[in-house]
């Protein structure tokens, strides 16, 4: 089972994600080998900050998703319920990444755990080429999918929305309970060595609770440790939430300050190019050790041992 929804499907029925179905009593993955999107991105775009900074990644996706985010910026991919895409074998995906000069492959744009068998095979092929593998995931996974991740995955970004405030999660994501996300993080911590970063999309008016941001920061500190990266991301209106404004920068700054007050050392703001809290600061002397503008690294002030 790949997803925490645990859809019950009779013969001929399809799950909520639109890409798995019951074919004569067996669970079938309709998007295996169907790549709907492929782009070369900087790793910082995922966002991933503390794993191979400055590297290039080949980002791929299939159609479908197990979440129904009303603001999804990739809704043309994630909410599409028609199986489409370019036919690619795992070896072709890995070779394409190499041909484009990528250092790794990111499985992103939709929830990658729902096509984990294909991702796993691509990841194994990628490792044979010397590439690393990254998931950008909503974390709504299962112990079975985490076990499979451990076969090929090097890094994962768990992407919270509205600090997992339950009402927001139900109303704007279509998920009845956010607890499986937290369970997945613990499972990854206990059963794998996958580098984990946390993101939290702050949605103004409906998903910007400071109380729940503090709860999330405390969870990250207690369960993953003070050096775990957390990014607070700016919302931009999209899909079914075009009437909402972009997140005020001051709101993001309040979330940043809360996370820092809970003891987290590496807190970042995302989607605000030029903001000083895009940079990496030394946890000891507080000097800028990596200066960024958006997804670009402008200065690198660390030695070969990553010390300032």
From TrEMBL:
GO MF annotation terms: 4 iron, 4 sulfur cluster binding; catalytic activity; metal ion binding
Radical SAM core domain span: 50-265
InterPro entries given in the database record: Aldolase_TIM, AmmeMemoSam_rS, Organic_radical-activating, Pyrv-formate_lyase-activ_prd, rSAM, rSAM_sf
Keyword set includes Iron: yes
Cofactor: [4Fe-4S] cluster
Pfam family, one: Radical_SAM
Keywords in alphabetical order: 4Fe-4S, Iron, Iron-sulfur, Metal-binding, S-adenosyl-L-methionine
Descriptive protein name: Radical SAM core domain-containing protein
């Amino acid at each position: 089972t790949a997803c925490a929804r645990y859809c019950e499907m009779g013969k001929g029925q399809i799950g909520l994600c639109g890409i798995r179905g019951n074919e004569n009593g067996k669970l079938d993955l309709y998007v295996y080998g169907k790549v709907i999107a492929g782009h070369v991105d900087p790793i910082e775009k995922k966002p991933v900050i503390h794993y191979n900074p400055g590297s290039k990644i080949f980002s791929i996706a299939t159609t479908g998703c197990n979440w129904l985010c009303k603001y999804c910026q990739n809704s043309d991919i994630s909410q599409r319920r028609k199986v489409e895409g370019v036919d690619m074998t795992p070896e072709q995906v890995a070779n394409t990444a190499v041909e484009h000069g990528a250092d790794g492959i990111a499985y992103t744009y939709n929830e990658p755990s729902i096509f984990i068998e294909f991702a796993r095979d691509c990841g194994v092929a990628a490792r044979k080429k010397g590439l690393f593998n990254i998931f950008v995931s909503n974390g709504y996974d299962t112990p079975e999918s985490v076990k499979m991740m451990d076969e090929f995955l090097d890094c994962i970004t768990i992407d919270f929305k509205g600090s997992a405030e339950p009402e927001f999660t139900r109303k704007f994501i279509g998920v009845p309970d956010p607890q499986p996300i937290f369970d997945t993080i613990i499972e990854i911590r206990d059963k794998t060595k996958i580098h984990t970063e946390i993101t939290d999309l702050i949605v103004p008016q409906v998903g910007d609770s400071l109380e729940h941001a503090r709860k999330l920061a405390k969870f990250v500190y207690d369960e993953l440790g003070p050096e775990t990266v957390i990014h607070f991301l700016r919302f931009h209106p999209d899909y079914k939430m075009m009437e909402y404004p972009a997140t005020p920068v001051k709101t993001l700054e309040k979330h940043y300050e809360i996370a820092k007050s809970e003891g987290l050392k590496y807190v970042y703001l995302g989607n605000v190019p030029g903001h000083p809290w895009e940079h990496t600061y030394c946890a000891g002397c507080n000097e800028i050790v990596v200066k960024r503008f958006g997804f670009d690294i402008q200065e690198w002030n660390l030695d070969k041992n990553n010390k300032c």
